[in-house]
Amino acid sequence: MYSIGQIARRTGIKVPTIRYYEQMGLIDPPGRSAGNQRRYDEAGLERLGFIRHARALGLSIDMIRDLISLAQDKEMPCDRAHEIAAQHAAHIREKIARLQRLEAELTRIENSHDSGTVGDCHVLAALTDHSQCMSEH
């Protein structure tokens, strides 16, 4: 059995975040010691490791909740888990494409030449007037 501090050190998850995950229903409420301290077992440690890794991959709390629910029945088909992963990967690809457009536009603005005074600064003008941008971002 682990105290909340011990499990926080083992998982790298901060104590308030562990409490938050408990409130969100991502982990089962732990047992309590005679002194009313939270006591986590190996299953709690494993679940927190799962959540930490899923969060590191950028999965939302709702996605993690769905995956945890799926994991409860070992005989259930894995299709929904693959669907969640595919949806998240598509979302990441969309974000990457948007960030690449932002980078290209900022580079274009940055590389534009002006007189060097604020009154004729292309960076400030482009930020003031979106129509000066070459692409939608």
Describe this structure in words.
This protein has 137 residues and is mostly helical. The chain has two domains: 4-76, Multidrug-efflux Transporter Regulator, Chain: A, Domain 2, CATH 1.10.1660; 80-132. Helices cover 61% and strands 3% of the residues. A two-stranded antiparallel ribbon has the order 1-2. It is elongated, with a radius of gyration of 24 Å.
TL;DR?
With 137 residues, the protein is mostly helical.
Descriptive labels:
137 residues; Multidrug-efflux Transporter Regulator, Chain: A, Domain 2; 2 strands; 61% helix; elongated
Q: Mind summarizing the main beta sheet?
A: 2 strands, antiparallel
Oligomer: single chain
What pattern of helices and strands is seen along the backbone?
HHEEHHHH
Number of helices: 6
Kindly provide the name of the CATH class of the largest domain. Answer: Mainly Alpha
Strand percentage lies at under 5%
Estimated structural class: mainly alpha
Count the beta strands: 2
Helix content: 55-70%
Helices and strands in order:
Elements lengths: L3 H8 L3 H9 L7 E2 L5 E2 L2 H15 L4 H11 L7 H33 L10 H7 L9
Antiparallel strand pairs: 1-2
